[in-house]
Design a protein that fits this description.
Oligomer: single chain
Protein name: Thioredoxin
Low-confidence stretches: none
Radius of gyration: 12 Å
Active site: 31 (nucleophile), 34 (nucleophile)
CATH topology: Glutaredoxin
Keywords: Disulfide bond, Redox-active center
Site (Deprotonates C-terminal active site Cys): 25
Site (Contributes to redox potential value): 32-33
Length: 107
């Protein structure tokens, strides 16, 4: 599966409302930790065991309203939604921490 780029607060709301399992990556272009984790996020999104999950990214500088609604305070932040409800999030994860979060909620 590909990582979808959400470019509006409406697309953020639609992604959460219209998909059973959603992982959102809140990032900024200037964020070094965001750039470091991105290849791992993209790799995990392509794994067959996660094909039933909707993966997306939101640039917090471009879509400030979505970042505010999601209460983003640190970057990168990854949030997991099940049936429209946020069930977990992680800030500034290392690759293994991100994978552990996915395995906990998405399998």
């Amino acid at each position: 599966m590909t990582v979808n780029v959400l470019e509006s607060v409406t697309s953020y709301r639609d992604a959460v409302a219209n998909n059973k399992l959603v992982v959102l990556d809140f990032y900024a272009m200037w964020c070094g930790d965001c750039r470091m984790i991105d290849p791992f996020y993209t790799k995990y999104a392509k794994e067959e065991r996660f094909q039933h999950v909707y993966f997306a990214k939101i640039d917090t500088e471009a879509v400030t309203e979505a970042a505010a609604e999601a209460d983003i305070r640190k970057l990168p932040t990854f949030q997991i939604y099940k049936d429209g409800v946020k069930v977990d999030q992680i800030y500034e994860p290392k690759p293994n921490d991100l994978l552990a979060l996915f395995e906990k909620h998405l399998l």
